[in-house]
Design brief:
Elements lengths: L1 H24 L7 H26 L5 H18 L14 H13 L4 H7 L3 H9 L14 H14 L4 H13 L3 H14 L7 H15 L6 H13 L4 H13 L3 H14 L2 H21 L13 E8 L12 E8 L7 E6 L5 E6 L15 E9 L11 E9 L7 E5 L1 E2 L2
Parallel strand pairs: 1-7
Antiparallel strand pairs: 1-4, 2-3, 2-5, 5-6, 6-8
Helix pairs in contact: 1-3, 1-4, 1-8, 2-3, 4-12, 4-14, 5-8, 7-8, 8-9, 9-10, 10-11, 10-12, 11-12, 12-13, 13-14
């Protein structure tokens, strides 16, 4: 059944991409060579990281289930990154309504439907219901079309209608298809089934408010506002509701108010949403500057990035081949999973690099999710991500992920024992 859920999650991403395209098209004149080059680079990075994951799995450092999850995340990132236009010198000014709608879709619509579904806590019940079917895989191992996946999910919910997890996934998928009225019904069903003291309840109320907002042509009416207030009464940190209030304020040209709401959301948003929220805040700040009005500052808004100058230590490198692999990565202090990683060759050194959220292995594990990290550069004699005896490395720890104005020197001068 993993194929079904993976298919739905990935196809929901595609639906969201097609939904965003008309809104974002007004912000550019054409794709230029820079955008095309970046697409090729993103594809190259995707292939490299997938190869690294496969090597980790082959070495026994990564379980099959974890490999599948990380592979899905990489595919999702590729869908999000490829084709994103570079900043052009001349752009048409987009209307505030369209821009705000694009922002809310990018920030608030749950793209990783599969991951959110598992977080609801009773996924095994729905999987058992699926396994009772005559065919354990209705698609015979192939990835279904979006329409097929939705139809199958609807069928499963007819057989097992008491599953809030399934209704949540269906509501999320409907949002990706722009079937907003259907998503309203699906999220309402989740709220009927989910206990009000469940930790996810406020978040689902926020998703319900969002679906009402889009079903109402992107307008904040009394019905939407009541659900927003309901969600925030349960959890004042509910990001979706704060984001909606910010968009309503932005569209009403109440830019300082929009900055306040988005600034609150920024503090509690997951790393994948922060970049879009940051863009919204910066846009509102620009509008205030153009008016000559005071511009509120938002703490922690600086992007998470670490600039490194990676080089070989004195006397190191005499026996190294130019094409040997150099891994540069950052991970939590005392942790193992890299939050940002890139691959170089010995011939590239010395080299200045920037580690940031664009180099994350998964949207959940990013530099911006922590305050400090350990950064390392390692020359892999075997060419694999796993450290082996004889590898050469250098480490800096702890390193703050924000506010690093200087380039930090990372020297490879130690040997893995």
């Amino acid at each position: 059944m993993a194929g079904l859920w993976t298919g739905i999650a990935l196809l929901t991403v595609l639906a969201v991409a097609f939904l965003l395209l008309p809104l974002l098209r007004a912000r550019r004149l054409a794709l230029d060579e820079e955008a095309e080059d970046r697409d090729h680079q993103n594809i190259h990075i995707f292939r490299e990281r997938l190869n690294e994951l496969e090597q980790e799995r082959a070495l026994g450092n990564l379980a099959e289930a974890d490999f599948i999850d990380l592979k899905v995340e990489l595919e999702r990132n590729l869908l999000q990154d490829v084709g994103e236009p570079a900043k052009a010198k001349n752009r048409d000014r987009v209307g505030r309504g369209s821009w705000a709608a694009a922002l809310v879709m990018a920030v608030l619509l749950p793209i990783a439907a599969l991951g959110i579904y598992w977080q609801l806590g009773s996924a095994p019940q729905l999987q058992l219901a699926l396994e009772r079917q005559a065919s354990p895989d209705p698609f015979n191992g192939r990835t279904p079309t979006l329409e097929e996946a939705v139809a199958q999910l609807e069928h499963e919910l007819e057989l097992n209608p008491e599953n809030p997890e399934g209704w949540y996934l269906l509501g999320t998928t409907y949002m990706g298809q722009q079937r907003y009225s259907d998503s309203v019904s699906a999220f309402a069903r989740v709220l009927e089934l989910l206990p009000q003291d469940a930790p996810q309840y406020a978040g689902v109320v926020g998703q319900y408010a969002q679906s009402l907002y889009f079903a109402n042509d992107g307008k904040m009416d009394d019905r939407v506002r009541r659900q927003v207030e309901r969600a925030l009464a349960i959890n004042p940190q509910e990001v979706t509701s704060l984001g909606l209030l910010g968009i309503d304020a932005f569209e009403g040209q109440r830019y300082a108010e929009a900055i306040d709401y988005w600034g609150q959301a920024f503090k509690f948003a997951d790393p994948g949403a922060r970049n879009s929220l940051r863009a919204g805040i910066e846009r509102a700040q620009q509008e205030l500057r153009a008016r000559g009005e005071p511009v509120p500052e938002v703490s922690g808004l600086a992007p998470a990035e670490i600039r490194l100058a990676v080089r070989l230590g004195e006397g190191v490198g005499g026996n190294l081949a130019p094409d040997q692999t150099v891994f540069v990565f950052a991970r939590p202090v005392g942790g193992r999973m890299p939050l940002a990683a890139l691959k170089l060759k010995v011939s590239d050194l010395p080299r200045e690099v920037v580690l940031d959220d664009s180099l994350a292995m998964t949207p959940e594990a990013r530099l911006s999710s922590v305050d400090e990290v350990e950064v390392s550069a390692r020359i892999s004699l075997g060419g694999t991500p796993a450290a082996q005896t004889g590898d050469l490395y250098g480490t800096l720890s702890p390193v703050a992920v924000q506010g690093n104005a200087k380039v930090l020197e990372l020297v490879i001068d130690q040997v893995v024992e």
